[in-house]
Amino acid sequence: MDGEQVASPAAPIAEWLTPQNTAIPVLPALAGRVIEVASDPDVSLVQLANLIGKDQVLASRLLQLANSAYCAPMQEIATIPDAVVRVGADGVRNMVFTVCFSSRMYDPSIYGDHGSLLIEHGIGTAYLARMVAELVDEDEDEAFLYGLLHDIGKLLILKLAYDYKRRSGTTVPAEEVATALEQHHASFGGITLKRWGLPLTLEEPIRCHHDYRSASTAPRKAMVVYLANRLSHRYGFGCDPDAYNILGDAACREVGLNAAWLSENDGRAQGLFEVARQSLIGAPKR
Ligand SMILES: [Fe+2]
Ligand SMILES: [Fe+2]
Q1: Which residues neighbour ligand 2 (ion) by CB within 5 Å?
Q2: pLDDT of residue 27
Q3: Residue 39 pLDDT
Q4: Pair 157, 163: CB distance under 8 Å
Q5: How far, in Å, from the CA of 32 to the mean position of ligand 2?
Q6: Which of 156, 191, 232, 274 could cross-link to 125 by cystine, CB 3.0-4.6 Å?
Q7: What pLDDT shows up at residue 233?
Q8: What's the CA angle centered on 269, arms 265 and 273, to 5 degrees?
Q9: What average pLDDT score do residues 217-237 get?
Q10: Is there a contact between 98 and 126 (Cβ–Cβ < 8 Å)?
Q11: Any idea what the Cα angle at residue 188 is, between residues 257 and 249, rounded to 5°?
Q12: Which DSSP letter does residue 214 get?
């Protein structure tokens, strides 16, 4: 980088970059249970409401979401069962994931400035993944999840650098962390998902979100998250906006994402992102 010397060149797996050397933040037990119940096709909404009601944070977030512009209720929703009905089982599951994901990225001593930016980038990409999934007839709620979690491997890499410093007293050079984040976050995302015991249908799109052609079982899902991530960078969700010519990308042609779709989306993406951010994490605009 501009003649700067990187302290130790980025080996494929450097000394500190060994995933078995750290504890991945676990999903809270209640959240895991909510996700399990909400993913059951025979889920009872009463059962789901009872679970959510046990956690104040999840309960208040659910009410907030059910009353948000995103859900647009005809009248104010004041109870958890009504909110579960309004948001639906998949919506509840996605809300729980978002709350868990964002609550685990906020520790600045571990994640520095990356944490809040990754949360914004994840939420923006989640909503864009829904839109692209709708275009290609993929499951939109599932797309929300792999969009939300696509860069989760960055969390693991930042945690490894933090743990290495605590263990050895040696700071991993910032350039080396940056290189590892860029080169390894997709595969480390796959590792995180496996450790969480999440379905493999989520793991592959996350692992292949920069290289959708390497997906062997669900290439369409990988293409959805690839494009959602491209769009997220176009709009600057949790990052600087880029000027990549997305319409020139082969993936756009493959899914039929054209100039008319892009123009319509360009007009509404920012507003939808603000609604999503406030509904899901209650964060004011930074
Ligand atoms: Fe990425
Ligand atoms: Fe990304």
Answers
A1: 151, 229
A2: 64
A3: 74
A4: no
A5: 24
A6: 232
A7: 97
A8: 160
A9: 95
A10: yes
A11: 20
A12: G
How sure is the predictor about 239, in pLDDT bands with cuts at 50, 70 and 90? very high
In the chain, CATH 1.10.3210.10 covers 108-286
What pLDDT score was predicted for residue 5? 36
Provide the token pair at 205.
């799109």
Helix (H, G, I), strand (E, B) or coil at 210: coil
Q: State the average pLDDT over residues 123-135.
A: 93
- Calculate how far, in angstroms, residue 150's C-alpha sits from the geometric centre of ligand 2: 6
The CATH class of 108-286 is mainly alpha
Q: Is 175 exposed, middle or buried (0-12, 13-18, 19+ CB in 10 A)?
A: middle
| SS3 state at 258 | coil
Q: Is the pLDDT of residue 186 over 50?
A: yes
Contact in structure between 276 and 127 (CB atoms under 8 Å): yes
Closest ligand to 233 CA? 2
Q: Cα of 277 to ligand 2 centre, how many Å?
A: 17
Count CB atoms within 10 A of the CB of residue 80: 22
The size of the chain, in residues, is 286
Question: Residue 282: what are its φ and ψ, rounded to 5°?
Answer: 65, 25
> CA 169, CA 183: separation in Å to the nearest integer?
25
Contact status, residue 257 vs residue 137, Cβ threshold 8 Å: no
Q: Are 129 and 249 in contact (CB under 8 A)?
A: no
Phi, psi of 201 (to 5 degrees): -65, -20
How far, in Å, CA of 175 to CA of 129, rounded? 30
Ligand 1 centre and the CA of 281: distance in Å?
21
Q: How many whole angstroms separate alpha carbon 158 and alpha carbon 118?
A: 12
Which pTM does this prediction carry? 0.83
Ligand nearest to the CA of 117: 2
